[in-house]
Amino acid sequence: MSAATERATGRPACGVDRPVFLVGMPRSGTTAIFESLATHPDVGWLSHHFNRFPRLPALAALARLCDVSPFFRKAVAPPSRGRAWFERLRDGPAEAYDVWETYCGEKFRFDYLLGQRATPEERDRMTRVVRAVLRYQGKKRFVAKLTGPARMGYLMSLFPDARFVHILRDGRAVVDSLMRVDFWRDSSRTREPAWRNGLSDAYLRTWEAHDRSPLVLAALQWRAVIERAREERDALRPERYVEMRYEDFLAGPAAVMQRIWEAAELAPSRRTLAFIAERLRPAARPESFRDAFRPEQLAVLDELLGDLLDELGYARGSPPASDSYRPASARETEA
Among 45, 86, 97, 222, which is least packed by CB within 10 angstroms? Predict the structure, then answer.
């Protein structure tokens, strides 16, 4: 569909109506908010089963069972060892990088994609897949979560009327959490940048000056992810981008979800609020990262991140609101 036809018909050129992308650094609360938004009755999403077999979009139809009963939806917290086999049979929303890589290429998983646009083939493949997912799930709108680089310019070249919700969290809490989870701690991400073409030469020199410290590398990547997202934001119309703090979600999830619904142009959902109250049970409490770091480490983090922390409303002198939502074990699996 051409741009002229789009204006005449009022329908998006790609055939996907106002998709919503939740973006943010890993360990920033994106999973909790994504899981919540994905319960909205009007939205479809890439599922765990489809991600296992990304060339079979018909598997997206299994997600319909999640609307039939919460019994069929994957748990937010990891299951006990004895129930792990059964949990694999359930479905739910996934970050689904295997799907994105299958249809957009390896670069989507590992690159900031700054200044890059989808090829016509990539746009055709990915938009056809999303339309198929919505058709199989019987939904009108598409929502996805992507952690790390926001990739907004590239995503806009796929979906010209996309909306973006950027989830923010205190960078010191993010670094603390990254140092604890195996997908980061036990990987090459402690020795080299997690994504290509995002850290400036100045940031790389700073990392070298700190003897290639994993803590410093994680902190600089938190900063770079936010800064690059804001650079990409400047090319968008204001209504296409909104920022939300995870700490605000913990303190008042209903108010944050209302802002997200408004930004996404979705009706309020009582189902979503019930899901948050019954399965997430968020609770604000004092951050614990100050107990995790030595004083000299906290001083380094304040030196590297302090001005951005100030800008985002995270006081350097006193801890902000909390780290987690219940159950606590769920925090250790968020990607």
Answer: 86
Task: With respect to residue 108, please indicate whether it lies within any of the assigned structural domains.
Answer: yes
Residue-by-residue DSSP string for 155-175: HHHH-TT-EEEEEE--HHHHH
Residues in the chain: 335
> Is 207 part of a structural domain of the chain?
yes
Burial per residue of 21-42, b for 16 or more beta-carbon CB atoms within 10 angstroms, e otherwise: bbbbbbbbbbbbbbbbbbbbee
Residue 161 domain flag: yes
pLDDT digits (tens, 9 = 90+) for 15-71: 999 999 999 999 999 999 999 999 999 999 999 999 999 999 999 999 999 898 888
pLDDT digits over 155-189, tens only? 999 999 999 999 999 999 999 999 999 999 999 99
Q: Which domain holds residue 136?
A: 18-333
- Long-range contact set of residues 60-66: C-beta below 8 Å, sequence gap at least 24: 60/132, 60/133, 60/136, 60/137, 61/136, 61/137, 62/91, 63/91, 63/92, 63/136, 63/137, 64/136, 64/137, 64/138, 65/91, 66/91, 66/92
Q: What is the CATH number of the domain that holds 299?
A: 3.40.50.300
Apex 147 CA angle, 131 and 120, nearest 5: 40
Distance, CA of 307 to CA of 248 (rounded, Å): 20
Q: How many CB atoms lie within 10 A of CB 72?
A: 16
Q: How many domains does the chain have?
A: 1
